[in-house]
Design a protein that fits this description.
Length: 423
């Protein structure tokens, strides 16, 4: 006979139930509740928006200290710099190569499916503006990775600069352990504090997820989604290929584990990532889950926060499909050189993209500009981006986890027996 604790519904189950209930309520609100000030302003844009955003902001509050302390502590605990060097080089190569592959898959699928064909859009037909800032050269992009003022980087949440500073701090503490033992312990304790604080905030996840999803479906319903079906289909197929072919095949070849067993164990993290549409918000659950299935926390505490910042395969797929969709919609033909430019630009754009909802739309403007496509075309996909943003975030986090397992296995920090035992 099961005890009360065994019968208790877990957090991940609560999140999934909240997801379903939020979808149902949203559809009911959209189709069966007539428009009114109470429905639109008080319920949807009032209660739903307020409670959903309160949860997102609570998670965002933790992002900067969580990333800094987890990476600094991970570098400190990893031991010798040779191990960190191996892990760092391998995980960055994995992230860059899978991102480039994701864009190639997206461009190929979109070219076959042909989203946007026959729309006959004209320039200036969309009222749209987005602050894109000045174009940044490759030289400046590389220079901007190094913080001139680490405190300012922490205050602004410049993730790449924070990561660089955290790595330097962690390495120096590790190399000066005899003299900086107290500081090293403080870094570890702060990391533990941030993890505990994040897990405490995550207990509110079912409530936040419920209202986020309810508002999304209350606003969209089915009509807008159906009008963009070919675009959505291309993105979803691209995400599915990246997940089921690229990640699972790589796990099978390099780690020799059952990829379907991995998906079963990892599904709660994917559900949470889908619900929040934030890679950063998923970092603590990602690290915890990987530790439970056999990955040494010393590895995952470095690779997962790093991946949440620079590994955006799902976002890259969206951008690749969006390029083809907008070019078809406006009747602008793309050359082979244009496709190569998109692959390069989207890969670079994914580095430094913050792991927060809908940020991919901002970096998409950079990709469109690189091949001379109208940025105003983004207006056509903004209405359904929230749904796709949730889906691609789930892929982003799965890519982080897959790369972490592969790298951990390559340096002897993956317990395959623990993975196989866990059900």
């Amino acid at each position: 006979m099961k005890s009360k604790s065994q019968r208790k519904i877990g957090l991940t189950s609560k999140i999934f139930i909240a997801l379903i209930l939020g979808m149902v309520l949203g559809i009911v609100m959209h189709y069966f509740v007539p428009k009114s000030q109470i429905k639109d302003e008080i319920i949807i844009d009032g209660v739903f928006y307020l409670l959903g955003q309160m949860f997102i902001r609570a998670m965002q509050m933790l992002v900067v200290p969580l990333v800094f302390f987890s990476i600094a502590d991970g570098c400190r605990n990893m031991g010798d710099t040779k191990t960190l060097g191996k892990v760092g080089v391998r995980i960055v190569l994995f992230y860059i190569l899978t991102t480039a592959l994701a864009i190639i898959i997206a461009l190929s699928l979109a070219s076959v499916i042909g989203p946007g064909k026959g729309m006959n859009m004209k320039l200036g037909s969309n009222e749209f503006s987005m602050e894109t800032g000045e174009k940044t050269s490759m030289k400046d992009t590389l220079l901007n990775m190094i913080p001139t003022n680490p405190i300012e980087a922490l205050a602004k949440g410049d993730m790449l600069q924070i990561i660089i500073f955290a790595v330097i701090v962690g390495l120096l503490i590790a190399s000066m352990e005899d003299r900086l033992e107290t500081l090293g312990n403080i870094i570890t304790e702060m990391n533990d504090l941030m993890m505990s604080m994040t897990m405490a905030v995550m207990k509110l996840a079912p409530i936040g997820v419920f209202f986020l999803i309810a508002r999304t479906f209350s606003n969209l319903g089915y009509d807008v989604i159906l009008s963009m079906l070919s675009y959505m289909l291309s993105v979803i197929l691209g995400l599915a290929c990246q997940l089921l072919i690229v990640y699972m095949l790589i796990l099978t070849i390099f780690v020799r584990v059952n990829p379907f067993a991995f998906l079963k164990k990892y599904f709660p993290v994917m559900t949470f990532a889908f619900s929040t549409a934030s890679s950063n918000a998923t970092v603590p659950l990602n690290i915890q889950t990987l530790e439970e299935i056999g990955v040494d926390k010393k590895i995952s505490s470095f690779t997962i926060p790093l991946g949440a910042t620079i590994n955006m395969d799902g976002t890259a797929i969206m951008q690749g499909v969006a390029v083809v969709f907008i070019s078809n919609a406006y009747g602008i033909d793309l050359t082979l050189n244009d496709y190569m430019t998109v692959i390069l630009t989207a890969t670079i754009a994914s580095v430094g993209t913050a792991g927060i909802p809908s940020v991919g739309l901002v970096t998409l403007s950079m990709v469109l500009s690189s091949v001379g496509l109208p940025v105003e075309g983004i207006a056509m996909i903004m209405g359904i981006d929230r749904i796709l943003d949730m889906a691609r975030t789930a892929i982003n986090t799965t890519g982080d986890a897959s790369g972490t397992i592969i790298v951990a296995n390559s340096v002897g920090s993956f317990n395959k027996e623990k993975f196989n035992k866990r059900t």
